[in-house]
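User: I've been trying to design a sequence by hand for this structure and keep getting stuck. Would you show me what you'd pick, starting by listing the structure so we're on the same page?

Assistant: Good idea, let's start from the same input. This is the structure you sent:
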């Protein structure tokens, strides 16, 4: 996953409290021991009327197998790939329950608000549950031309079951004339209604569906009966006119991933991609597909590929690392059991490195640009104040809460994004250690070939522990990996791993020359990077997004949320700020800012005299260029 807001954290904590009181007595911890009523021969049926998806809502109707007596049905809470209690319970509206055509009274549990109780009358073998799914409350999941359908948002299921044994037969009714794509296999289509085969609940939830008025499907790769597809859905048809050069790079994605892992654990893979400025940027992994969301011009503007070209490759890599191989304590048997996220430094941290690596090897980004990209992320982690108090393991353990973290001073608190970015540095360090200790005979690729064996399977899951990871690494290159991870993950590390720069033949320097990745990012996202000089980052219209603790701006009293109105007496413009920054080296005079916050104005003098500072990597003469070897294509294109 690249990013995701998490809601209902308090309900999640309460759910884990054994013996919490409710109107019905004691609520036990969630388990997966109940007798399953929805079998393959008698599945739950789900008809999702998405004909109104363009208006922001859908209607879901389920027939759930039951037996007479007390019955509890639940709404999915802990969603795989989102790493937290993200089930959007507030999106459920107009809930109605009936049996044999007669309404049934239902009640929500007072403690576990994802659980709903009914009393099933004698002689009844199924109940009908119907509700309205709100698509844009609060996440935007649809526009008049696109809808993202995550099945977990549109269903209820029997409580306390093993979702591998619980079967659902789903159907969807699309808006007239819309196309769709999903990893599910359709068995019948009548007009705008598509019927799918009965599948285990886990497979249904693991198979999102995108649909839309303007769509384009591209075959990226094929070998025998195995295929990889790019399924694009846009708010405007012109955003589907992807340049041939960009598409050609994406066709290298599967060959490079297969070379990296030496295996395949999917049959037909769909990269589902929405292109819209209304639906937020997102990437969520699934075993045979990914739910990717990007700005409208993402596939037609090369700068987007430079800045965020790992969106699809990151989620594609998760089919191996995350879906096939998964932390043991992140693997649960239904969606009500809380996930433990401590090993996300492998699941997401290593995958951030691999997703970026695949984007460069495939040519989505130019392989030779990786040193500049690495300089950007290394300097970001090296200058983050929060790392002096919080170890990486705390971030992964607290991920279900940190994913929702927003607001001011994120660099002090740290965020979930840190174990992605620092994870890349950590696993690059691992890669360079393996390469140097084995004199180039082995690499992280060697480890991944062992990690992802056997070579060919369908979508199955094989779990791991920290000890398993360290044991496999030792088989590739003997080393004290336990102490290595203890130092960089489990203890406070005031600096990110740095040995990889020297081993790779590079060193970090700072100069006035803009870093091309920072420059491209700032232009696309309307930011102005001054983190290493004054000590702040700016958003639109001169508004401070964050201020670095201990920096000149911090010492002068600047804070997030302030808006710069003037610089050295001139009305704020980026060019005026740039001129003032360059001038500091010659004048050695403080920069005088007039700032506004909450309708109050203030004059602040910032004593910084070093001019612009941007990070770069430069070669260490006479050393091997490991970064070039690592990022070079490894498959025939």
């Amino acid at each position: 996953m690249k990013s995701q807001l998490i809601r209902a954290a308090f309900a999640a904590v309460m759910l884990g409290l054994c013996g919490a009181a409710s109107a019905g007595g004691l609520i036990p911890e969630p388990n997966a021991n109940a007798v399953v009523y929805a079998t393959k021969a008698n599945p739950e049926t789900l008809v999702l009327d998405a004909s109104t998806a363009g208006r922001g809502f859908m209607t879901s109707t389920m027939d759930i197998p039951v037996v007479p007596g007390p019955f509890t049905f639940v709404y999915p809470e802990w969603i795989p790939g989102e790493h937290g209690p993200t089930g959007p319970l507030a999106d459920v509206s107009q809930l109605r329950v009936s049996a044999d055509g007669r309404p049934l009274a239902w009640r929500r549990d007072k403690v576990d608000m994802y659980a709903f109780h009914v009393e099933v009358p004698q002689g009844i073998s199924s109940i009908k549950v119907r509700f309205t799914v709100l698509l844009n409350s609060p996440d935007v999941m649809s526009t008049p031309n696109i809808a993202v359908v995550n099945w977990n948002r549109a269903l209820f299921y029997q409580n306390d079951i093993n979702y591998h044994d619980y079967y659902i037969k789903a159907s969807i009714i699309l808006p007239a004339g819309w196309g769709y794509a999903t990893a599910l296999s359709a068995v019948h289509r009548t007009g705008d209604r598509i019927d799918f085969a009965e599948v285990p609940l886990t497979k249904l939830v693991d198979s999102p569906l995108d649909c839309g008025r303007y769509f384009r499907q591209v075959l990226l790769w094929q070998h025998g009966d195995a295929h990889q597809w790019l399924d694009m859905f846009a708010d405007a048809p012109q955003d589907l006119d992807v340049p041939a050069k960009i598409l050609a790079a994406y066709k290298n994605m599967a060959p490079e991933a297969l070379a990296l892992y030496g295996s395949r654990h999917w049959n037909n893979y769909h990269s589902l991609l929405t292109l819209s400025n209304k639906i937020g940027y997102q990437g969520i992994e699934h075993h045979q597909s990914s739910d990717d969301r990007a700005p409208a011009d993402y596939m037609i503007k090369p700068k987007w590929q430079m800045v965020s070209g790992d969106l699809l490759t990151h989620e594609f890599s998760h089919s191996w690392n995350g879906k096939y191989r998964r932390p043991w304590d992140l693997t649960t048997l239904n969606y009500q059991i809380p996930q433990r996220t401590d090993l996300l430094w492998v699941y997401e941290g290593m995958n951030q490195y691999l997703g970026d690596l695949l984007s460069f090897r495939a040519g989505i980004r130019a392989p030779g640009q990786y040193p500049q990209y690495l300089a950007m992320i290394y300097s970001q982690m090296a200058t983050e104040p929060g790392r002096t108090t919080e170890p990486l393991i705390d971030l992964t353990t607290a991920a279900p809460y940190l994913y929702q973290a927003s607001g001011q001073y994120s660099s002090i608190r740290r965020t979930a994004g840190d174990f992605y970015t620092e994870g890349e540095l950590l696993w690059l360090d691992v890669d360079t250690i393996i390469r140097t200790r084995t004199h180039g005979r082995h690499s992280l690729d060697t480890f991944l070939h062992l990690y992802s064996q056997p070579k060919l399977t369908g979508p199955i899951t094989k779990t791991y522990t920290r000890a398993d990871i360290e044991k496999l690494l030792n088989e590739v290159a003997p080393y004290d990996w336990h102490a290595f991870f203890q130092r960089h993950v489990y203890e406070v590390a005031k600096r990110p791993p740095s040995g990889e720069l020297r081993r790779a033949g590079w060193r970090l320097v700072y100069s006035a020359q803009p870093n091309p990745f920072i420059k491209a990012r700032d232009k696309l996202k309307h930011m102005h990077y001054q983190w290493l000089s004054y000590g702040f980052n700016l958003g639109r219209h001169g508004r401070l997004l964050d201020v670095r603790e201990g920096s000149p701006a911090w010492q002068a009293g600047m804070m997030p949320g302030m808006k710069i109105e003037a610089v050295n007496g001139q009305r704020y413009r980026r060019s005026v700020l740039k001129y003032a920054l360059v001038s500091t080296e010659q004048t050695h005079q403080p920069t005088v800012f007039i700032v506004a916050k909450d309708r109050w104005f203030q004059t602040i003098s910032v004593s910084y005299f070093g001019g612009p500072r941007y990070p770069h990597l430069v070669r260490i003469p006479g050393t091997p260029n490991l970064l070039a070897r690592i990022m070079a294509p490894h498959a025939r294109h």
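That's my pick for every position. To get oriented when you compare it with your attempt: Residues 3-27 have pLDDT under 50 and may be disordered. The first strand starts at residue 20 and ends at 22.
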